[in-house]
Amino acid sequence: MPIEVLRIFYDAAKVFVFPSLYEGFGLPPLEAMAHGTPVLTSNTSSIPEVVGNAAVLVNPENVFEMMRALQRVLLDANLREKMRLRGYEQVKKFSWDRSAAEVLAGYEEIAGMRPTALPVRRAANS
């Protein structure tokens, strides 16, 4: 989907629902928060770490829990506004530049490491 269309959806939505069972990172909820869209998402995998306290977290396998949370978010304008503001703050913790710098630093650390010398075993009769 073109990013321009995605932006329209994020901007028009009252809430972004992302009941994923597994995510390596969870970029879609972060994108939604960057647009000021409240997020309701899974309490599994890496997602809670990504969204922090800026989203409503639910068990993605419990449809009743999701329904109650979605109803709460849709009916409570104050909650949506609080989530919108928290989302903007949470998004500030992430950037492509910082991610690239951290990956580069990791590679540099690994490249600079030398293997530990193994002890030399001597023959018993030497």
Explain this structure.
The protein is mostly helical. The chain has one domain (3-112): Glycogen Phosphorylase B (Rossmann fold, 3-Layer(aba) Sandwich), CATH 3.40.50. Helices cover 54% and strands 9% of the residues. The chain contains 6 helices and 3 strands, in the order αβαβαβααα. Strands 1-2-3 form a 3-stranded parallel sheet, with helices on both faces. Strand 1 (16-18), helix 2 (27-34) and strand 2 form a beta-alpha-beta unit. The radius of gyration is 22 Å and the shape is globular. The model has no long low-confidence stretch (mean pLDDT 88).
In short:
It is built from 6 helices and 3 strands, in the order αβαβαβααα. With 126 residues, the chain is mainly alpha-helical.
Keywords summarizing the entry:
single chain, 126 residues, mainly alpha, three-stranded parallel β-sheet, 9% strand, globular
Please give the domain count: 1
Biggest pleated-sheet summary: 3 strands, parallel
Report the CATH topology name.
Answer: Rossmann fold
- Uncertain runs are none
Helix residue percentage: 40-55%
General shape:
globular
Average pLDDT level: 88
At the fourth CATH level, what is the homologous superfamily?
Glycogen Phosphorylase B
Strand content: 5-15%
Strand order of the largest sheet: 1-2-3
> For the record, what CATH class applies?
Alpha Beta
What structural class results from the helix and strand content?
A: mainly alpha
User: What CATH architecture would you give?
Assistant: 3-Layer(aba) Sandwich
